[in-house]
């Protein structure tokens, strides 16, 4: 299959010595990666698929759908209040005030406005975000080689996540535009089925993609931070905080570490991407306006409205997404490589090994 040539990768789990011996002729001399995983269509004991196989990438995409679609839908009420604070701070003065006003005007059902475009949009985004991240990480690692993949692993995470998010936002953009209109324009539409036809009638296809560039501005930095910060935080937690090696941790303990690393990454994600998020919210409310027009009107201070609820929302979201995504890998018995280790060939070059 198309992905099978990318199966040799420095981020793969190590094998037991017996497994290494079985496939040692397929290895590049001196490499400390999994021998069996370097062989096409070889599935390690206990795994349901081979690392880097088509099935592996498809299951990663499924994990992205489950993790992103469900978590974003769960926090729709907070997202709705956050968007309303961004577009009408005079009316919605704070998080608590925003909930109070929304409940008074729309009742409890009003807090669920925009759930459908949120669910379908972020499911599509999750498919591309997580699935393509795994694909690009393996492809780019294969291009630059094992040693450079370790030395430049942060850059590898950044490039892979940016590439994945570029396509993920194209899938998300129409649903995000509909969600913001439903949540911030009273009387426009109450459901996704109502919103799409009205948007086409009012602005044509441009209604779905006029927010794509600011969406890229928001989501690409967010995702780059989300994946690179998570990967490096996870590495540091196992190195300095977790009292025993990852291999000695139960899967439950590993998932707890995953959640902690995800929350830390989420806080940084929210801060980095918040100004662009405010522009996206305001842009989809303002008919005919450009992203630059909205940014000028808001000013630097205005673009930070709703930051506190977004930190809470994104921190929780990011932690939950990584927890669910890793949980899906456990549930489907997928390969879950440990944090990368320095290749033996590089250790020898640096005089760290004989």
From TrEMBL:
The superkingdom of the source organism is Eukaryota
* Biological processes annotated in GO: mitochondrial phosphate ion transmembrane transport
Q: Give an example GO cellular component term for this record.
A: mitochondrial inner membrane
SUPFAM superfamilies found in the cross-reference section: Mitochondrial carrier (SSF103506)
Q: Which GO terms describe its molecular function?
A: phosphate transmembrane transporter activity
State the annotated membrane topology for this chain.
Answer: Multi-pass membrane protein
Q: Name the InterPro entries on file.
A: MCP_dom_sf, MCP_transmembrane, SLC25A3/Pic2/Mir1-like
**Keyword terms, alphabetized:** Membrane, Mitochondrion, Mitochondrion inner membrane, Repeat, Transit peptide, Transmembrane, Transmembrane helix, Transport
Query: What are the Solcar repeat spans here?
Result: 55-139, 152-236, 253-331
Entry similarity comment: Belongs to the mitochondrial carrier (TC 2.A.29) family.
What role does it play?
Transport of phosphate groups from the cytosol to the mitochondrial matrix.
This one is known as: Phosphate carrier protein, mitochondrial
